Amino acid sequence: MPSQFTNPLTLISRPDFRFETDRDLVYQIGALGTNIPITVPKGFVTDLASVPRLLWPIFPPFGPW
Q1: pTM of the predicted model as reported, rounded to 2 decimal places
Q2: Is the CB of residue 48 less than 8 Å from the CB of residue 25?
Q3: DSSP letters along the chain, please?
Q4: What dihedral do alpha carbons 55, 60, 62, 65 form, nearest 10°?
Q5: CA-CA to 7 of 20 to 30 Å: which in 23, 29, 37, 63?
Q6: How far apart are CA 25 and CA 23, in angstroms?
Q7: Number of C-beta neighbours around residue 47 at 10 A
C-alpha cells in the first residue's frame, strides 16, 4: 500500500487567523504496519500557507496556494 494519511485532518479556527489541529494527524510512510509514521501532534498551530503578513493583500493566507 502506498504512503497515506491514516486519519482526516480536522482544524480549529483561532482568532489570530491561524488554525490548530484538534487531534494528532498521522502520515504513514510506505505500507501500513511498517512502523514509519510521521505525527503532527494535537495542538499544532499553522497558518496553512506561511505567507508573510506583508504579502497578505496580494496572497491572502487562506488562498489555494
Answers
A1: 0.66
A2: no
A3: ---EESS---EEE-TTS-EEESS-EEEE-SSTTSS-EEEEPTT-EE-SS---GGGTTTS-TTS--
A4: -70
A5: 63
A6: 6
A7: 14
If you average pLDDT over every residue of the chain, what do you get?
84
22: left (phi over 0), alpha (psi -120 to 50) or beta: alpha
Beta bridge partners of 40: 25
The radius of gyration computed from the CA coordinates of the chain, to the nearest angstrom, equals 15
What pLDDT score was predicted for residue 52? 81
| CA distance linking residue 28 with residue 46, whole number of Å | 21
- The amino acid at 33: G
Q: Degrees (nearest 5) of the Cα angle 18, 23, 29? A: 100
**Which three cell numbers mark 29?**
510512510
Residues 4, 12 contacting (CB under 8 angstroms): no
Cell of 17: 487567523
